[in-house]
Amino acid sequence: MTLASELLSNRARLTPGREALLDWQTGRRHTYAELNTRANQAANFLREQFGVQKGERVAILAHNSIAYVDLLFGLGKLGAIFAPLNWRLTGRELAFILNDSQPRVLLVGPEFVEVLAELRGQTSVEHIIALEGAHIPGAGQYEQFMEGAAGREPVQPDMDEDDPYCILYTSGTTGQPKGAVLPHRQVFWNAVNTVISWGLSEKDVSPILTPMFHSGGLFVFLVPLFYAAGRIVLARAFDPEASLSLIVSERCTVILGVPTLFQVWMNSASFTNADFSQVHFFISGGAPCPPALIKAWQQATGLALRQGYGLTEVGVNCFSMTAGEALAKAGSVGKPIFHSRMRLVDAQGVDVPSGDTGELLIAGEHVCSGYWNRPEDTAAALQDGWFHTGDMARQDEDGYFYIAGRFKDMIISGGENVYAAEVETVFREHPAVADAALIGQPDAQWGEVGMMIVALKPGEQATDRQLLGFCRERLARYKIPKRIEFVSSLPYSPYGKVIKAELRALFLPPG
Length: 511
Hints:
Elements: H1 6-14, E1 19-23, E2 28-31, H2 32-50, E3 57-61, H3 66-78, E4 81-84, H4 91-101, E5 105-108, H5 113-119, E6 127-130, E7 140-141, H6 142-147, E8 164-170, E9 178-183, H7 184-198, E10 205-208, H8 215-219, H9 222-228, E11 231-234, H10 240-249, E12 254-257, H11 259-267, E13 281-284, H12 291-301, E14 305-307, E15 319-320, H13 323-328, E16 335-336, E17 341-345, E18 357-363, E19 370-371, H14 375-381, E20 382-383, E21 386-395, E22 401-406, E23 410-413, E24 416-419, H15 420-429, E25 433-443, E26 447-456, H16 464-472, E27 483-487, H17 500-507
Parallel strand pairs: 1-11, 3-4, 3-5, 5-6, 6-7, 10-11, 12-13, 13-14, 26-27
Antiparallel strand pairs: 1-2, 8-9, 9-19, 15-16, 17-18, 18-21, 20-21, 21-22, 23-24, 25-26
Helix pairs in contact: 1-2, 2-3, 4-5, 7-9
């Protein structure tokens, strides 16, 4: 049986004194034995003090900290479910997720006390725990609960590899987020696949610079390196200069970033003199990485910048390539990982020939079990064991895959997925708006930014500033369009759908 919760326990048994994690903010270094003890303490106090049982959810609203590691492995030992919250979302968006997942306990960091006050009127959570000294009336402090808890392994309930381990919410194409249910087997096999396919070992060191409410922050390197006995350097947030210093001083060997992050690094003052001699490879994920950036990075550093591909639902590390292939096949995401199956199919579900573009379907133990409380969405995404990604791809004659676009109506801005339906729904709520359509506009810094095309109701008036102000109260900042254009009416198909190709031809430059 492949329980992801056992990875840390087994690693602590095999290499208890090996350094596992440096908390960059506090400067404290933790061995595997210490991390496992912390996970046990978290599990024990959550069950004994708050009654958390198998299948119940625990959420966290906080910046990166060691508490994420405590909860990820501690809750797994109980058979409970970890449900981290995207702190970039507004109170309204977070309220929907909390009401959908119904966590028994919510942990809140000091930066989000005001958000919690807003949430109290929209949702109810039975227990609140304060992190890092956050002042929350009536809430106990996480650190005090940890100090008073036993460090012994908790008694585990009967568990199965298909039991839910995490619920990670992704933006929904229908206007509401969907909770992808990640079972134990998915997290375990993502670790196995990554170690085997990417050649990781106990000598590897990786920084976490991306938010840990994301699957990338939790699963690209954290769990795989713990499986391989490597080391993690945990940063609270991304800072260009500080992160370069971290990579050099801690001699990091494998580094994850999004395309925007790599561009910011290249523009930073410390980049030219940064010593990357210890780095095995960099990998870009979250959004398509421009081949020009891959080549510029290699020219500037002499090191490979690989392009990765993954989804919360199918695992964050789905392809692999060597350093040499990263430049020779710039634009490719590589070949499928070791324990995985992939197909490219047309609209009728028929496999397309090599060189043709089709929808990417993925099967394997690293695929999620569906969506929380969404049986219809689960049935649509998972068909006969194959997960329909909604992404278009092609495979060349050498077996390398290239992501060609998206069937789903979505843009990716700075590594964040922005679904058009969600943003359009908010615009339509404005009393002056008759209809609205979001398209992606190329942007040198963010890859893509949103452009909203708006048709107003007859006799109504609204400015772009007013509409953007309306959005700021309802959407996370990264979802808010950067440009608004007004039209008298939108182009519709005979089936009543907006013809976005016509809008792109009208408002975007050729190509």
